[in-house]
Amino acid sequence: MNALAARDLSFAYPDGTTAIEGLDLTIEAGERVAILGPNGAGKSTLLSLLAGLREPAGGEMSYFETDDPADELRDRIAHCPQAPADYLFNATVREDLEYGPAQLGIDRREAADRVDALAAEFKLESLLEKPPFRLSGGEQRRAALAAALAVEPDLLLLDEPVADVDAGHRETILDALDARNEDGTTIVVSTPDADLVAHVADRVVLLDHEGSIVRDGPVRAVLTDDELLGEVGVSPPQLVEAFQRAGVEDPPLTVEEAVERLRDGSHC
Amino acid sequence: MHILDGYLDLWVAAVAALTSIAVLAFAARRSAGELDGPRAPLLGVTAAAIFAAQMLNLPIPGGTSVHFVGGAFAAILLGPHLAALAMTAVVAVQALVFGDGGIVVLGGNVLSMAIVEVYVGYAIFRVLRPYHERVAVVAAAWTGITLAALTSAVMLGVSQAFAYDVGTVLSIMGGWHGLLGVAEGAITLLAYEFVRETRPDLVADRTSTIDRRRLFRRGSAVVGGLVVLSPAFAWAAGRVGYTEPLEHAAEATGATAHAVTTLPGILPDYGIPGVDPYVGTLVSGVVGAALVLAIGWLAGRPLDPDREPR
Amino acid sequence: MSPVDPVSRSAGTLTDRARGLLRDERVAERPGWLQAVHPVVKLLGVFALIVVTVTFDAPGPPAAMLAVTLVLAGLSRLPPKAHALRTGVPMAVSLVIVAPQAVVFSGSALAGPITVPGASYVATFVLRVGASVSLLGLLLSTTRFASLLGALRSLRVPRTAVTMLAITYRYLLVVFEELSRLVLARRSRRLRSATLRESWREAGALLGTFLLRALDRGERVGRAARSRGGTTGRTYVRRQAIGVADAAFASVVFAAVAAGVLLT
User: Fold this and answer.
1) Domain boundaries of chain A, sorted by first residue
2) Who among B41, B59, B92 is closest to C196 (CB)?
3) Superfamily covering domain A2-236
4) Nearest to A195 by CA among A266, A251, A263
5) Residues on chain A touching C230 (C-beta within 8 angstroms)
6) Do A14 and B201 touch (CB under 8 A)?
7) pTM to 2 decimals?
8) ipTM for the complex?
9) Which of B143, B145, B281, C142 could form a disulfide with C34 if both were Cys (CB 3.0 to 4.6 A apart)?
10) pLDDT in tens, C211-249
């Protein structure tokens, strides 16, 4: 089953600028996909289009192989925007975590359990009664992700999910995403950061400056194609660059992988 | 222009609150489809922004400064109903967060700053736009703020708690805000021109589907109702005035009318003692009604697509 | 250096406002009498007290009410200076506005042209305003805005209205900061002081930029709300137990209202 399918999608901003034209994209249920592209490629716009939050100028979106419009599937699709401040619009963090469940008519006891579990998972317990504007950028990011997960979605679209998060909390977020994916949640992440991609995705959709898909393939194939990455203006992952410069054919993508290889001594 | 608790008689605050609620209910109904969707957050954020923008000090000759109010500009950007709701949020948050303006008199502040300013500003803009866009923007902002001040002045003037009479308050507040309105008109025009250059789609002429005759009929019904009810308000005022021993203040109001009035008000007879209060209120009700009808009719005219000039 | 021009001074105004808002949020978290009162009881109680206050026609009762509010402020651990400013400034402004009435009212002379009824009216008016403003200040500094919104919901205020107020409050500090940034950026680029004409042109562009950004943000927040199931304003009602603090406050309100009715 596919989680979402976009056919011949196009979009123009109200001032007339074209952002996306004739885009086709299918994402299977349970996949982990990264949308990678330089700043200004229209990643955020694409992600909100995929979430059914903007009206496309042309083309069609479908979810879970149904004809239901996105607005009727809000209990299954969650979208976290680039700026968490835009997402946390309630008076307290607790109200924000409860917002989705309340809108979808979920039983209050069930909602309370979910909020407690998410607050513990994302280390938000001491922040629950605070207004969101008193949170730091990283705290807001965690709260927004927790709020998105409160509806227990099947499809999660995240716009730069670890921007301005410190190292410790970055692990918290990545672990949470892994855990959801193991339970079958489809995860789509947009980012300009190639270093992040290998941690959150198995498949990469690479966009160029005009917002067209220039490559769609497995993480390893796309991230090691330094020529293509250079053309669209994305720096390759630092590890890949280092190993490639050292003349290694098949560079590691993550630190763990690199450590393993170095221990084996196969590339020393 | 924010009125504090203690300035208005309770009956004035109550009448203003009821009027405001009625108009806002109408505005909410007219924009119901939009409010259910993503418009409510848009309005909330816009209201916050207008609040912030009101803190922008603008220099005027003489070393002092004035500030932007924004009701007319909101009406031009959002349309009158949504703008009235957004400005209500501004006024309500000012009272409920910062204590600018009281809570018992909240309805009065909403009436002048969120309703009169917005609807009058929008009507003027719509009427004049086909002839001269820049003039329309300036006139909308100026008239909006001036009539809003006059509305506050009437509420203060008819309140016995505030010992000055209507004529005095009208001339002072009207005169002062007539001057401030010039600044409001200028800054609104500058901001409008900026928006028109960068986002022409936001201020584009939208063809409206409002039926002029229906608008006129409904307007007449509302205004007619208010006219019929106005002696009742006067009667209520009389009741409140008599049950509360504010007579000495009332007497003094009479004295004030002769001693302090230096400029003639719009309705000089209104606050003069000796005129039967029932008749006085009825007369001003009729004049107000005529004004509202005239604005409504003028505003309705360009809404008719067939008549749209150009 | 030339004096800072008004547009740049706006950043200071914005900062002051933001500080005031955050101070109220902090005071509302302190342990104190009124902080412990249920927001619905507090809102209705303060409303009733203001209604009674504005009907007094002699200086005595509103002065007594003002005194009561000051005691309440002490028992709720309000910062004295901030509360005094919040109450005193509107009183001073009101005094200036109605002061001529001290002369205009006819009656026996008190001192010079000032008459007894005139002085009495001015004192009553200013004390009425002061007591009302102080009461409202008590409500605002001891209640978190989230609780106040909860109270409005319990009082059946339409959900859309409460949602809008919540969002306006939520984004106040965000837009304050954005406007300050715009104002400061403008000042940092300016090498000499602006003429009046330049100031206005720049202010127009600044205002336009700021409002357009706000509209963009509003649309983004709107999309966020849509992605989270809409803006019906449904929430889970939270119950707060009524306790001793509520009973005590209710009796203060009751006593004041009863005294008010008996006195008038």
Assistant:
1) 2-236
2) B59
3) P-loop containing nucleotide triphosphate hydrolases (3.40.50.300)
4) A251
5) 71, 74, 103
6) yes
7) 0.82
8) 0.91
9) C142
10) 999 988 998 998 998 888 877 667 777 777 788 888 889
